[in-house]
Design brief:
Layout: E1 12-16, H1 28-37, E2 41-43, E3 45-48, E4 54-56, H2 90-94, E5 116-117, H3 118-132, E6 136-138, E7 141-142, H4 145-150, H5 155-162, E8 170-176, H6 179-189, E9 192-197, H7 203-210, E10 216-220, H8 228-234, E11 238-244, H9 256-265, E12 270-273, H10 276-289
Parallel strand pairs: 1-2, 1-12, 3-7, 6-8, 8-9, 9-10, 10-11, 11-12
Antiparallel strand pairs: 3-4, 4-5
Length: about 290
């Protein structure tokens, strides 16, 4: 296949929060299934606990994807309808159960796994790499860094401390929508850092301002329709597009397969997918057909 990616190789399939379609997001089950299905990269999101322990979680609060609402002992700690992650000790979060937050997705795995500490994810990746005799690539996103820093816990520093001694079997790239926070990560760690862009972002300005130190862009998939990919590649930056969901097909596409074919043909270097198996099948079919 003659791919239009930055390196000419097949686009990566990123397991978005693990295989978060069939399993609850950011759980050991979701991450393990992602590798079993053949995903190239596993994406944890990272938020801190009150005592500065990073957890693989998407939300600043615990209500959406854990069973905390049914835990009476935490009722008094509710704030504005949620339970802020940074107001709980790590050992308290350890005791919660992860649940499927998306309507219409399977619920039979609710409560089977607890929220994962980032340190546990790294150790899991090391074990998986040794078992498979292949490095495992993790692509964490540091979530809400300014919000947490204002409340007393700096997730950037927590992250920098956590990757001082990474296992050689584990590769880590980093993403964040906050350019200043991401620059701090880059300067502290030297890891590949990719800047998140939403659909309305000034991607031209982002490339101009940050191209000298960025490794790439994490871009809303709608941006694939314009000249952004070509401009990023000209600047030496990869483009990883989000998010592709089998049960929530993007506007203008007749099916998830059609949407994935369009995205894979756009020049994107990777796709964030809740159902990585579907993207892997479409990628393989396009390669064979060509």
């Amino acid at each position: 296949m003659r791919w239009r990616t930055l390196d000419g190789q097949a686009p990566h399939v990123i397991a978005h929060r693990g295989a978060s379609g069939p399993r609850p997001e950011h759980t050991l089950g979701a991450y393990e299934l992602a590798l079993e299905q053949g995903a190239d990269i596993v994406e944890p999101d990272l938020v801190p606990s009150e005592d500065g322990v990073l957890f693989a979680r998407h939300d600043a609060g615990l209500a959406r994807s854990t069973d905390i609402a049914g835990r009476g002992e935490f009722a008094a700690q509710r704030e504005d309808g949620d339970w802020p992650c940074d107001k709980f000790l790590a050992e308290e979060i350890d005791g919660l159960g992860a649940i499927q937050p998306f309507e219409g997705r399977a619920k039979q795995f609710d409560g089977r796994w607890s929220p994962l500490r980032w340190s546990t994810v790294i150790e899991w990746a090391r074990e998986q790499a040794r078992a498979r005799d292949a490095r495992v690539l993790l692509y964490p996103e540091i979530k809400h860094p300014a919000h947490f820093a204002e409340r007393g816990v700096d997730p950037v520093q927590c992250f920098a401390d956590s990757v001082v001694e990474l296992p050689p079997e584990v590769e880590v790239w980093v993403q964040c929508f906050d350019a200043d926070a991401l620059r701090r990560v880059h300067e502290a760690t030297g890891l590949r850092c990719c800047l998140g862009l939403d659909a309305d972002s000034d991607w031209r300005g982002a490339i101009a301002r940050h191209r000298t130190w960025l490794g790439g862009l994490v871009a809303a998939k709608s941006l694939l329709a314009g000249p952004m990919v070509e401009a990023a590649h000209a600047a030496g930056l990869r483009v990883d597009a989000y998010t592709f969901r089998d049960d929530r097909v993007g506007a203008g596409h007749a099916s998830i397969e059609a949407e994935l074919e369009w995205a894979l043909a756009s020049g994107a270097d990777a796709l964030f997918c809740d159902f990585p198996a579907t993207a892997l099948a479409v990628r393989a079919r396009l390669a064979v057909a060509s």
